[in-house]
Design brief:
α4 packs parallel to α7. The chain has an 8-stranded mixed beta sheet with strand order 7-4-8-1-9-11-2-12. It has a 3-stranded mixed beta sheet with strand order 10-3-13. By secondary structure, it is an alpha/beta fold. The protein has one domain: Alkaline Phosphatase, subunit A, CATH 3.40.720. The N and C termini lie far apart (68 Å). The protein has helices at 19-49, 68-71, 78-87, 101-110, 132-138, 213-232, 274-284, and strands spanning 57-63, 89-91, 94-95, 143-147, 159-160, 163-164, 181-183, 197-201, 236-242, 252-253, 255-259, 266-268, 272-273.
């Protein structure tokens, strides 16, 4: 070592060290702090940039085969109208993508029908495309589905009683863990433990497919009414939509948003479809990307306070 060289481990007190080294240490600490917090900023920044809230929980319910005019204003759906629509927001120009059911579920979940044209059993894990679950998970958030009459958690059975796999598009994706498909009995009583984003899929009776509008309306009230009330004061949201219409109304469907940060009684006449809903769900959760056609549409706006 030459006379001018310094040891690699400088034992001198910090105040005695050269200013350049103290400055470097300070900069290093600041960079580390910034790196640790940038993920949190990005998650909130996506929603804020779109003018959306950043809810802790979003629950999405998909019902079946009814047009806007069959639900909105119907005396058979008092809970959907007098509570969710009156106290939340109604999208008056909300549309499905196609017919029949299954392609719409894929569109809502992944931004594409994935070439599906019928209601057949899915090829489990057949797709690897980005989707709501993979985007939310990549953002460090959590995802699950709650499926009424699903025989057991992660079951890939095509049908069982009133359960229909065709309404569960997540089974078609190899990048969505099977164990995130839960039974509805596993829907938590402590709503604070819900995932960031979750789907609730009622069975073929409760979703109005095989049973009446009144049956579905009562099911929503009895099974999710308490969550909806809780959501208003706990920074959370409930979104209710339909897969498709009755094939008689141009595929115009009801879509309702209820909970914290939603203007009570608000309506939006902007034309939206399943891709807009998907993009909004991604941005509410702070996802860094958008799956499929969700990348080319806008978020739902005009209903937030």
């Amino acid at each position: 070592m030459t006379a001018s060289a310094k040891p690699l481990n400088d034992a001198r007190p910090a105040a005695a060290r050269p200013r350049s080294r103290r400055t470097a240490l300070a900069i290093g600490s600041a960079v580390a702090l910034l790196a640790g917090s940038v993920g949190l900023w990005a998650a909130a920044g996506t929603a804020q940039a779109a003018g959306l809230p950043t809810p802790d929980h979003v629950v999405v319910v998909v019902l079946e085969n009814h047009a806007y005019s069959q639900i909105i204003g119907s005396s058979s759906a008092p809970y959907l109208n007098k509570t969710l629509a009156a106290g939340g927001a109604t999208l008056t120009q909300s549309y499905a993508i196609t017919h029949p059911s299954e392609p719409n579920y894929y569109a809502l979940f992944s931004g594409s029908t994935q070439g599906t044209v019928d209601d057949g059993c899915v090829t489990v894990g057949g797709f690897q495309a980005p989707n709501l679950a993979s985007e939310v998970t990549a953002a460090g958030k959590t995802w699950a589905s709650y499926n009424e009459s699903l025989p057991s958690q992660g079951s890939t059975v095509c049908s069982s009683g009133k359960y229909a796999q065709k309404h569960n598009p997540w089974f078609g994706f190899g990048n969505v863990p099977l164990n995130t498909a839960l039974t509805f009995a596993q829907f938590p009583g402590d709503y604070s433990t819900l995932p960031t984003v979750s789907f609730v899929v009622p069975n073929l009776c409760s979703d109005m497919h095989d049973c009446s509008v009144s049956t579905g309306d009562t099911w929503i009230k009895n099974n999710l009414g308490a969550y909806a009330t809780w959501a208003q004061s706990h920074n959370s949201l409930l979104l209710v939509t339909f897969d498709e219409d009755n094939s008689l109304s141009g595929n115009r469907i009801p879509t309702l948003v209820y909970g914290a940060h939603v203007t009570p009684g608000a309506t939006s006449a902007t034309r939206y479809n399943h891709y807009n809903v998907l993009r909004t769900l991604e941005d509410l959760a702070g996802a860094s990307g958008h799956a499929g056609n969700a990348a080319g549409v806008t978020d739902i706006t005009g209903i937030w306070n």
